[in-house]
Design a protein that fits this description.
2 copies of one chain form a homodimer. With 134 residues, chain A is an alpha+beta fold. The first copy, chain A, contains 3 helices and 7 strands.
């Protein structure tokens, strides 16, 4: 049954800002561009958007959205069909931010490794954006 | 904030057996021993148990349990504090089984890699147990 096996990359961080501020950075195109990629994102269920970078692009579609709490979009490249889910949980100190990218098949270890290395970098950049914006 | 970052290992598989059969393999000590490790597991919230292998052991405590649906236990070794959550979802073909081990810190990459390699092997063995038991 290994052909139906999928893996996820999960990164969770405690971030010292309220969910509302982090939500803006996750959903406003000019802010998304600063930490992730150029994009035509809209916070609307079923909206299709692209992320584009020097190395290529990602085709996405918003699947679910609860403002300031959770955001899910598909994340497809040439041979990867995956789903990214952001979950924001308020804490005493700010927000517990969880990112899960699900759908890596057993034969997609290179993608899995790339995402394992890549997401903490994106989150570092996200935190830099948060530090310099209202 | 990277010191508060944690990662998870997630493996999901479609398995051609009903949740009740998989649940038995996840919760009966003599079956757990066949695919995971020697143990004194009991399906009782707050029950503390140990998993033991040639290379050492794991200290665990049941945190949550809904028969045939979900099982959560802590999974602690000398320097790793993690949580394993099993989720069983019935499907047309059997069961979607999800295993998540959460709590790997950014400085615990070796544990993360070990778990990434190890869990699919445990799941292979679990499927072998399922194939030869009622």
């Amino acid at each position: 049954m290994t052909d139906t096996e999928t893996r996820s990359v999960v990164v969770e961080r405690e971030i010292p800002y309220p969910p509302e501020k982090i939500w803006r950075a996750l959903t406003q195109p000019h802010l998304i561009e600063e930490w992730l990629m150029k994009n035509d994102f809209k916070p609307v269920v079923h909206h299709r958007f692209s992320l584009s970078a020097d190395w290529g692009g990602v085709e996405c579609q918003v699947q679910a959205l609860v403002p300031n709490r959770t955001l899910t979009y598909s994340w497809d490249t040439k041979d990867l069909e995956s789903v990214v889910t952001w979950t924001l949980t308020p804490t005493d100190k700010g927000t517990r931010l969880r990112m899960e990218q699900a759908g890596f098949r057993a034969d997609q270890q290179a993608y899995l490794r790339g995402a394992t290395v890549g997401w903490p970098r994106f989150l570092d950049r996200l935190e830099e954006v948060l530090a310099r914006t209202d």
